[in-house]
């Protein structure tokens, strides 16, 4: 009788008749191969033995003092972790067939001859069990492969659906921007002429204003300031219709950030800190467009903090992109509007046009990069700019491709 996997065999014999157990023990002892035969006279001792070590084979009498041998098989008829051969007396063949349906590997009718041939029966059972185990392993491998394939297909499907949604949102946003831009451009051109006339008239009144008339000076100053506000809105509207491709150059980030911050009004009480690695930190961008993005993001941060707070600008290289974070310690952006802030015409400000962030994202995307609102543990709002670290020719090739 050959060993399994090069190790000696361990067989659990569950038999309450001492004479039959002795015949089987002698039959195994007569073989060349060493077999460890553990004899249990009842189910209780058999179960105790199974908890200590898993045998290579269980040979059990059908009728035992404390139950039936088939009770060693899983009650739910799931695959047994070990092969079981049932021994039965004359007249119990039908019961033994039912035992095989319950999961027994084989059964034998107990006679003196079959008990003497038990090593051969065991060898046949172990060979059959090996085939069953291989088949189960192959089925399990196939099942796992199928599950992995289905999971992969589901992940790919979800990824494709997400990319389609992103592409759809981007197309809708670009279409809306283009439509708004076309309408806005015509309106902006029409507004600039009367605004120019108002500015000239305001200038004339300021020149004619009697010295010491502070009330009229204050009103004329308000007019001048609001004309500037209107012209900035017009410039924003015109920017949407230009769709100018970026002229990418090397831009010193620290210098660009501080220049943009200097252009913002009402920054008293607002601190600015740049943490760049490496320093100096150079990005590839159109200087004018990049400046517009920085001014808009920094202006939003300053306005959110209402005259008291600080802005942190950090930058570091990551793979093929430079990552720039602009973070303030203001109240942050409400959860229910986070998905809408980049949509054209959406704003939470009383005087906002709802175009600033939409144009900023459009400008960054023209560079082959991304602009997103990201989560931060420190509170406030954090915007992430990712710009490709590639030369101008490579960027142009990627855009055309």
Describe this structure in words.
This protein has 401 residues and is an alpha/beta fold. The protein folds into 3 domains: 9-116, Response regulator (Rossmann fold), CATH 3.40.50.2300; 172-242; 249-400, Histidine kinase-like ATPase, C-terminal domain (Heat Shock Protein 90, 2-Layer Sandwich), CATH 3.30.565.10. Helix content is 51%, strand content 19%. The chain has 10 helices and 14 strands. The protein has helices spanning 18-29, 43-52, 93-101, 112-116, 118-208, 214-242, 253-262, 287-305, 356-366, 392-400; strands at residues 9-14, 35-40, 57-61, 63-64, 67-68, 84-88, 106-109, 249-252, 270-276, 282-285, 309-318, 321-328, 370-374, 382-388. The strands form 4 sheets. A 5-stranded parallel beta sheet has the order 2-1-3-6-7, sandwiched between helices. It has a 5-stranded mixed beta sheet with strand order 9-11-12-14-13. The model has no long low-confidence stretch (mean pLDDT 85).
Largest sheet: 5 strands, parallel
Distance between the termini: 70 Å
In the residues, how many domains can be counted? 3
Can you tell me the overall shape? Answer: rod-shaped
Class by alpha and beta content: alpha/beta
User: Mean pLDDT, as a whole number?
Assistant: 85
Give the oligomeric state of the chains in this entry, treating copies of one chain as homo and distinct chains as hetero. Answer: single chain
Q: Spell out the CATH superfamily of the largest domain.
A: Histidine kinase-like ATPase, C-terminal domain
CATH architecture of the largest domain: 2-Layer Sandwich
Tally of helical runs: 10
């Amino acid at each position: 009788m050959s060993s399994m996997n090069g190790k000696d065999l361990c067989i659990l014999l569950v038999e309450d008749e001492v004479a039959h157990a002795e015949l089987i023990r002698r039959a195994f002892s007569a073989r060349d191969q060493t077999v460890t035969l553990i004899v249990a006279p009842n189910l209780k001792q058999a179960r105790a033995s199974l908890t200590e070590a898993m045998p290579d084979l269980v040979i059990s009498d059908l009728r035992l003092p404390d139950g039936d041998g088939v009770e060693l098989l899983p009650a739910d008829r799931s695959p047994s972790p070990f092969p079981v051969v049932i021994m039965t007396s004359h007249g119990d063949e039908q019961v033994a067939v039912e035992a095989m349906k319950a999961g027994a590997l084989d059964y034998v009718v107990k006679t003196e001859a079959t008990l003497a041939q038990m090593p051969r029966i065991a060898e046949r059972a172990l060979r059959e069990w090996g085939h069953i185990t291989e088949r189960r392993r192959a089925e399990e491998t196939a099942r796992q492969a199928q599950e992995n394939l289905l999971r992969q297909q589901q992940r790919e499907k979800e990824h494709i659906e997400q990319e389609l949604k992103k592409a759809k949102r981007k197309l809708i946003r670009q279409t809306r921007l283009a439509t708004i831009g076309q309408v806005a451009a015509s309106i902006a051109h029409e507004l600039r002429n009367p605004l120019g006339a108002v500015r000239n008239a305001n200038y004339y009144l300021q020149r004619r204003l009697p010295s010491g008339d502070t009330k009229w000076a204050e009103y004329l100053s308000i007019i001048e300031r609001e004309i500037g506000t209107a012209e900035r809105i017009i410039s924003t509207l015109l920017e949407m219709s230009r769709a100018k491709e970026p002229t990418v150059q090397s831009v010193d980030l620290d210098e660009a950030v501080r220049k943009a911050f200097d252009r913002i009004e009402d920054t008293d009480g607002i601190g600015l800190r740049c943490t760049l690695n490496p320093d100096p930190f150079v990005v590839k961008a159109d200087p004018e467009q990049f400046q517009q993005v920085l001014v808009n993001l920094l202006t939003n941060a300053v306005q959110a903090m209402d005259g008291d707070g600080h802005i942190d600008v950090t930058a570091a290289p990551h793979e093929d992109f430079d990552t720039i974070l602009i973070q303030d310690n203001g109240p942050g952006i409400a959860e229910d509007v986070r998905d809408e802030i980049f949509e054209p015409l959406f704003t939470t400000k009383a005087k906002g046009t709802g175009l600033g962030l939409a144009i900023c994202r459009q400008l960054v995307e023209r560079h082959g990069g991304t602009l997103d609102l990201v989560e931060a543990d420190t509170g406030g709002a954090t915007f992430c700019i990712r710009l490709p670290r590639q030369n101008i020719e490579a960027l142009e090739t990627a855009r055309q491709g």
